[in-house]
Every structure is written in C-alpha cells, then in structure tokens.
Amino acid sequence: MKPYNILFLCTHNSARSILGEALASTHPSGLFIGYSAGSSPGTSVNPIAAELTQQMGYDQSKLRSKSWDEFGLPDAPKMDFIVTVCDQAAGEQCPFWPGNPATAHWGFPDPSQAEGTEEHKKKVFLEIMLGLKKRIDMLAQMPLDKLDSMSLKEIHAKANA
C-alpha cells in the first residue's frame, strides 16, 4: 500500500505544522508521509519543536520552515490530505492544491507564544504534540481511501469530545 501524503499548514511553519509533519512521518502505521508549510514561513524551526521531532526519530535534515507555495508547484508531491493547524492559516486564501485532496482544520493554540519557564513552554508544546498525535492515530484507523473533508473534520470533533 502506498503511503498517504499529508500536509500540515500554519502561518509561520515553525511549531505546530512541524510537529504534524514529524508525527505523521514517524507514525508506527507507516501510512503517512508528513509535510508542512506556512503562508508566511519564518526563518527557522522553533527549537522546542526541533527537539521534540528529534526525540521522535525524525530526520533533522528535513526540518525547515517552508512556504506553502512549494506544494502548489507542478513537481510538488501530490497531497492526499491537507490540515490547517492554526486559525489564522485556516482563514487565508490557500493556493490551488493539485489532485483535490481532502482538507480539514484541526486548530491548536500557538505553543511558541507560551510564556513562563522553559519547563512550562515544553509542557505546552507536549500538549499540542499529543493533541496532534491523537488525531493522526484516529486518522490511521479510518478507511483512508474513502476519506473526504467531512471525515477529517469529524476526527477533530471526536478528539475534542
């Protein structure tokens, strides 16, 4: 079975979407290849997000903040699923995605905005990571070849219940 390409979108592509990319790519099911991008990508990946992806065993050479325009190009990987993980990116005009992928919004607060001690900031990142993991785990249990945008949105609703 071919793995499914899943693109996680956020505004700056430095934290939440990076975690989604790494979680999908390292998922034990082997069902996904994760990607991430942003509408206004930053210059670097958040150090806490980078640390967490390293702990997952994700290839650190793949970590970089990318523009979502890269994934609308003719030679870009064809996406099966596109998930926005921040409210700002969900409200923006996205590029055309070839292949008509299923889309959804799994909104999470920005962990890079957490204030306080380094320990508290890491805790906030872990909470976001666990929320994403829960949704990816649920996605892996579904009949992926039959999924549509409504099904992806239901995952978020069930995970929040």
UniProtKB/TrEMBL annotation:
GO terms for biological process: response to arsenic-containing substance. InterPro entries: Ptyr_pPase, Ptyr_pPase_sf. Transmembrane segments: none annotated. SUPFAM superfamilies: Phosphotyrosine protein phosphatases I. Gene3D superfamilies: 3.40.50.2300. Pfam families: LMWPc (PF01451). Residues 4-142 form the Phosphotyrosine protein phosphatase I domain. The keyword Glycosyltransferase does not apply. Keywords: Arsenical resistance. This is Arsenate reductase. It comes from Polynucleobacter meluiroseus.
